[in-house]
Amino acid sequence: MVKIKVTKEKSAINRTKRQKLTLEALGLKKIGQTVEHEDTPNILGMINKVKHLVSVQEA
């Protein structure tokens, strides 16, 4: 599996509860924080829901 790096770029203030919970499930708490995940359909779906708040790179 390919690893991807997900970085939180924008704040979750004034976002829906669902988007806030998705960011938390990805392991993102602070702006600028980066986490690595496997490139699975579950993770890609979560990233797609908050794509306006995060940036994605291949590790």
Can you characterise this structure?
By secondary structure, this protein is of the alpha+beta class. The chain has one domain: 2-Layer Sandwich (Ribosomal Protein L30, Chain: A), CATH 3.30.1390. 32% of the residues lie in helices and 27% in strands. The protein has helices spanning 17-26, 41-49; strands at residues 3-8, 34-38, 54-58. The protein has a three-stranded antiparallel sheet, with no helix packed on it. The longest helix is centred in the middle third of the chain and has 10 residues, at 17-26. It starts with a strand and ends with a strand. 17% of the residues are buried. The model has no long low-confidence stretch (mean pLDDT 97).
For this entry, give a set of tags.
Ribosomal Protein L30, Chain: A; 59 residues; three-stranded antiparallel sheet; single chain; 27% strand
> For this structure, what is the CATH homologous superfamily?
Ribosomal protein L30/L7
Uncertain stretches? none
Note the main sheet: 3 strands, antiparallel
Count of discrete domains:
1
CATH architectural arrangement: 2-Layer Sandwich
Distance between the termini: 11 Å
Instruction: Could you tell me the CATH topology label.
Output: Ribosomal Protein L30, Chain: A
CATH class: Alpha Beta
In one word, what is the shape?
A: globular
* Helical percentage: 25-40%
